[in-house]
Each structure stands twice: as C-alpha cells, then as structure tokens.
C-alpha cells in the first residue's frame, strides 16, 4: 500500500507556534539574535575552511535599529546571508532548520567547527517574530552572490519573495511592531532601554558584538574660558554601543581570571553587595560537557529561610540564557549556592525555556554537589574563620538537609556539620570530636537547650562531664532531629545526656539503683499522685549527680522535638511523655520522704509541684501555672 505523507495546515501551525510555544514575548529578540549569530558563525566557519573567503572575525557584528516613527525594529547581521532558495526553504517551511542541517553536516574531527557554536536546531525560532510584529520583512544577500531577495509576510496569508537591492552580504530582519493594546505593551520593543535589558538578559554571551545607537545624557566639558559662576551644562549624545559582554567569564581559563573579576561578576549578576566567600570554577568533558561557575555567598539572603526564596542556577546553552533558576541543578541542602552552568549538550525543548530530558541535568547536578562539598571541606580545613562565617549564614540549612528525606543525605553532609563543644569552648566538627574521645567513651554526647550557658548548667550534664567526656551543646530547634537522623557516625552512636542509659551501668550500679528505687517507691508514688496527668511517670534518676530533679521524656518524642513541633503551623502536635526524675541522694528527696512518712499530703503536693516547676523551667518549657508556682516559692520564705 502506498504511504501517504502527513499534511499540515501551515496557517494554523504558524498560529500555534506563535501563540503557544513561548511564555514570554520578549523571547523573539533572543531567537532572532541567535539566528544572526548563527549566520555570522557560518561565515566565520567558511573563512576558516575556504581560502577564497577573506572575512575577519572582528568585522562580524549584529546591529539593532529601533525606529519609533516607522514602528519598526531591524536586526541586521553581516553573516552568511540567504539566497532565494534559502529564503523559501528555511523561512517558508516551518520546522526546517538550515542551521540544524549545517551542524549535522560538520565532520566530527573538523577543527574549524570547534571555533563556532551554532545555536539553531528546531527551525521554529524565526517565527517568534510574529508574536510582536504584524509584518516581517527579511532582506538577504547570500555571501558570494550579487543578488538580494526580499521575503515578506504578515504571518497569516503566506509570504512573498521578490528581488531587491542590498549593498553587502548578510540579512536584515525588519519587524513592523504591533500596536499596543490593553493587554500588551508592544511599544516597549521600540525603546532602547528595554531592548538593552532584554539583550543583557538573554544574549549577553553571544560571541559577536550586538550594537545599537543609544542616547546618553552627558555633562559637557567645562570651557577653558568659563566664567567663575559657570554652571555645568548637560547634553544628549547619541552613540553606538556594544550591548553584550560576549566572552562569559566562565569560558575563560581559570588561571587568567582575577579574583576581583570573579567577585565583580557575582555582585553584578546576583545583586549582592558583599564579595562571595568562595568561587568554584569548574568544567567537565565526557558524558556531558559543561562549564560552571558557582559562588558561596557571605551572608544569608533576607528571604533565604522563607518560601519566597527560589533556589537554582542560571542555565546557558551556547551562551544563550535558557533558565534563570534551574532548581534541578542544586540539592536543597546547597540551595544557598548561586551561579551559572553552561552546556551545549542539553536537550532543549522547542521553546528553549525548559529542558526536555533530565539525564544530563542529573549528571551535572551530582558532579556539582560533590564539588560544592569538597570546596566547603577545603574551606573548613584551610580557612576556619571563613568557614565559621559560612556556618553562621547557612549551617542551619545543612542541618535541615541532614534531617530531610529520612536522613538520605546525611553521609554527604555529616563532615560539614559544626556543633559547640563543651571541651573546646567553640565549634567542633564530628571528626575532631571523635579524635579527642577517650577510648572508653561509648557515644557522641549531646545536650539540647536554649543557649550554651543554660545547657552547661543543666543537672543532667554534670555526670557526663565528670567522666571526662565531651558534650555537643545544641541550641537549635532542629538539632535533636539532626542527632536522631545521623544515628551513627564512624561506628559511634549519638546519645542525649538526658537518656536514662546515657552512661552504661555495671551490674552493681544497676542493682544499687534498683534498690534505691525500691526504697523510694512510696515517695515516687506520692509525687505521681500529686502531679496527676501532668507527668507520665516519676522515677529515681540515674542521670543526675548533685541536682535534685530534672525532666526527661520516654518514648519516641523528646522534649526538644515537642518544642520544635509546637512552633510549626497547625495545632495537633505530638507531645513528649514527660517523666519527672528525682535524685534520691539529694536533700529535697529526703524532705518529701519525711512528709510522706508523716502522712502530710499537702506538703507532699507542694514539694512535688515545686520540683516539677523547676524541672520545666530548666528544660526551657513554660510553667503551667506561674502564679501558683510563685506563691509556693514565697511560702517557703515565711
Ligand atoms: N539571519 C539569518 N541569516 C541566515 N540564515 C538565517 C537567518 N535567520 C534564519 N536563517 C535560516 O533560517 C532557518 C530557520 O530559522 P529558525 O530561527 O526558524 O530556526 P533555527 O534557528 O534553525 O532553529 P531554532 O528554532 O532552534 O532557533 C535557520 O536554520 C537558518 O538556516
């Protein structure tokens, strides 16, 4: 059976193209400039491969001319140009890419091909002109030909091609800009400031100069014979200006870029007024070829810990901006990193606004994550002061990273963490803590609280310190979760000093504790009865040394977790099972015992509430009835 060809309703197809592919109308300029750059590239390639073509790369340029009176915007190049046939086949057939064919025709070992970077591939970009123009005229003269041709279309009723005059080879794209309406301001595409802005945004790294005549308001030179009361005069001058930077910093050799250049680029591009803490300039060749320039900022952006903050790296393909914040390139724990990634290998979708396949992205993201980690580790080892600055700005983010996804990233992050060390009186890494551990120390110890000072005074801290063991003082809400998520590092587990089994007990110690618990049973029961449901249990403490009491929790929810969750939105948060721990060797225990033995229930209740209140305060939790507590304390004084 004979195969039939698909037919396309070209008018509808064009309409679809113009109205459905792109999200932003301003993209038309990026597309036409990319085409002009491709045309220059093809001519540059020709000059490298054909001795008869004498074109100097430095003479190649792209010119932008807005004309408000005529309502036209003209984009001209002095590149390869198009013959009548080229115009008909390239601009008359939607989705036919002369540039794509050109690229496909280059041999792999073609040395001259390395010097060019053709962008076009889909054969649709040109038609984006109809998003902003109601008529497009293309005047083109192919290189080496004397003839020039004019292609013209209003986008709806096909196109015409007629012969015309053109002085030199190259192409002029003349767009007649649509009239502005209520919904859309087309006039802006005739304003030089807007055109400059769009070019800077999307086409800053096009490798040929993009020039436009712009107005500048300047102070006139002071005349030599100016009178004493001379007032400065201003004038408006028109001058041709190159709008794009051309060579992106990240394409330059690392050794040739000065630190000031890196810093200036960062500040301008990412709107920070402080120099970054570190720059990572890296490239890779192989499965995916890319160049990246990443920065670690010195300060926390004001919205960093809010939902408004968007993570991501700028993504370029062959010097053209594709995405401003590509989130897939950064894991959440490194969301503070700013920077750019450039690769010609991305599978772009037809609008060049998103990427089609994420495989290349994944490869790059994984490599960058490792790079960022090793850069931070290097900073931690070689410039601790700087690292402390980094930690103050973004340490919490790394901790959230440890907790996220059930601890899936803990191995990536654990070496980067810092905690306050009871021994050092400053921040320590886990590795340094482990190096200092006495041989018999069974765990990494940590204690949570509001501040280092307050934690140091917690009664449950005492016996661990007395053993000569170091404690990590944790002052952030998330810390308890971090320790639970870390679980075990280098064969040692994390233990809260408030855990009953924080210090392993010998059989004798266990027996002695059981005996004490048995001996104090009537006190424990009386205190529990007095406190009722406020506590789940009252027990003889094995975590106190000289302190009289403290609060701890049984079960999976710790007091710190309860505090953390109570700050989250919503009302139904899990509560810790509170346990009041009493020290049978401390004087208050004996005082309660006396009251119990005397059958003085009121005094027992008062003492129980006092000890419970103290324990709540030390744990950083609110008293349930502060007035009653104050009264009870006062009553002790009279
Ligand atoms: N200024 C120009 N000079 C020479 N040829 C051009 C010019 N503009 C467009 N062309 C030709 O027209 C073809 C179609 O252009 P169009 O912008 O529609 O697609 P493309 O650039 O090939 O691909 P993409 O859709 O990926 O941008 C190009 O491939 C190129 O051959």
UniProtKB/TrEMBL annotation:
Function according to Swiss-Prot or TrEMBL: Molecular chaperone. Has ATPase activity.
Locations listed in the record: Cytoplasm
Region feature A, mapped onto this chain: 1-352
Gene3D superfamilies: 3.30.230.80, 3.40.50.11260, Heat shock protein 90, C-terminal domain, Histidine kinase-like ATPase, C-terminal domain
Subunit field text: Homodimer.
Keyword Nucleotide-binding among UniProt keywords: yes
Key words, A-Z: ATP-binding, Chaperone, Cytoplasm, Nucleotide-binding, Stress response
Top-level taxon in the UniProt lineage: Bacteria
Source organism of this protein record: Flintibacter hominis
Similarity-based family: Belongs to the heat shock protein 90 family.
Region of interest (Disordered), residue spans: 496-517
C, as annotated region: 564-638
Molecular function in Gene Ontology: ATP binding; ATP hydrolysis activity; ATP-dependent protein folding chaperone; unfolded protein binding
Domain Histidine kinase/HSP90-like ATPase positions: 24-181
Classification via Pfam families: HATPase_c_3, HSP90
Protein name per UniProt: Chaperone protein HtpG
GO cellular component, one term: cytoplasm
Biased segments, Basic and acidic residues type: 507-517
HAMAP family noted in UniProt: HSP90 (MF_00505)
Plastid listed as a keyword: no
């Amino acid at each position: 059976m004979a195969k039939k060809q698909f037919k396309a309703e070209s008018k509808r197809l064009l309409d679809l193209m113009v109205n459905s592919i792109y999200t932003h109308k301003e993209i038309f300029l990026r597309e036409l400039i990319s085409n002009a750059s491709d045309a220059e590239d093809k001519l540059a390639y020709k000059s490298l491969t054909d001795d008869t073509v004498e074109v100097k790369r430095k003479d190649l340029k792209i010119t932008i001319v807005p004309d408000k009176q005529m309502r036209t915007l003209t984009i001209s190049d002095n590149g390869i140009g198009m013959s009548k046939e080229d115009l008909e086949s390239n601009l008359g057939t939607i989705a036919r890419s002369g540039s794509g064919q050109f690229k496909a025709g280059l041999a792999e070992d073609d040395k001259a091909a390395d010097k060019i970077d053709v962008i076009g591939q889909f054969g649709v970009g040109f038609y984006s002109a109809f998003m902003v123009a109601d008529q497009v005229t293309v005047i083109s003269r192919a290189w080496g030909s004397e003839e020039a041709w004019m292609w013209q279309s209003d986008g709806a009723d096909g196109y015409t091609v007629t012969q015309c005059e053109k002085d030199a080879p190259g192409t002029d794209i003349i767009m007649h800009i649509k009239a502005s309406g209520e919904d859309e301001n087309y006039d802006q595409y005739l304003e030089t400031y807007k055109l400059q802005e769009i070019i800077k945004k999307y086409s800053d790294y096009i490798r040929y100069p993009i020039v436009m005549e712009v107005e500048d308001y300047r102070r006139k030179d002071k005349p030599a014979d100016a009178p004493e009361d001379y007032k400065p005069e201003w004038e408006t001058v028109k001058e041709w200006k190159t709008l794009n930077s051309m060579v992106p910093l990240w394409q330059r050799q690392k050794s040739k870029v000065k630190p000031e250049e890196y810093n200036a680029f960062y500040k301008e591009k990412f709107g920070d007024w402080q120099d970054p803490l570190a720059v990572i300039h890296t490239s890779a060749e192989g499965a995916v070829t890319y160049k990246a320039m990443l920065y670690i900022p010195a300060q926390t952006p004001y919205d960093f810990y809010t939902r408004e903050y968007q993570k991501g790296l700028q993504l370029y393909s062959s010097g053209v901006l594709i995405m401003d914040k590509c989130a897939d390139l950064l894991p959440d724990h490194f969301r503070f990193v700013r920077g750019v990634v450039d690769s010609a290998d991305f599978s772009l979708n037809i609008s060049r606004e998103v990427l089609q396949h994420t495989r290349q992205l994944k490869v790059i993201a994984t490599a960058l994550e490792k790079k960022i980690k090793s850069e931070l580790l290097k900073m931690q080892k070689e410039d601790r002061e700087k690292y402390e600055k980094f930690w103050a700005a973004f340490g919490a983010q790394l901790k959230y990273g440890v907790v996220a996804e059930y601890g899936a990233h803990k191995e990536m992050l654990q070496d980067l963490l810092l905690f306050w060390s009871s021994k050092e009186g400053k921040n320590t890494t886990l590795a340094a803590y482990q190096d200092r551990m006495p041989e018999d120390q069974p765990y990494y110890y940590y204690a949570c609280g509001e501040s280092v000072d307050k934690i140091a005074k917690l009664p449950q801290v005492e016996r661990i310190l007395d053993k000569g063991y170091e404690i990590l003082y944790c002052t952030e809400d998330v810390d308890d979760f971090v320790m639970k998520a870390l679980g075990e590092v280098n064969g040692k587990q994390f233990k809260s000093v408030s855990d009953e089994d924080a210090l392993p007990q010998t059989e004798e110690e266990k027996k002695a504790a059981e005996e004490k618990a048995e001996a104090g049973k009537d006190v424990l029961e009386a205190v529990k009865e007095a406190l009722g449901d406020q506590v789940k249990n009252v027990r003889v403490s094995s975590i106190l040394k000289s302190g009289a009491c403290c609060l701890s929790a049984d079960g999976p929810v710790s007091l710190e977790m309860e505090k953390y969750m109570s700050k989250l939105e919503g009302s139904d948060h899990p509560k810790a099972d509170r346990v009041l721990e009493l020290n049978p060797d401390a004087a208050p225990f004996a005082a309660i015992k006396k009251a119990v033995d005397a059958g003085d229930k009121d005094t027992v209740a008062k003492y129980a509430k006092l000890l419970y209140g103290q324990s709540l305060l030390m744990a950083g939790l609110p008293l349930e009835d502060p007035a009653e507590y104050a009264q009870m304390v006062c009553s002790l004084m009279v």
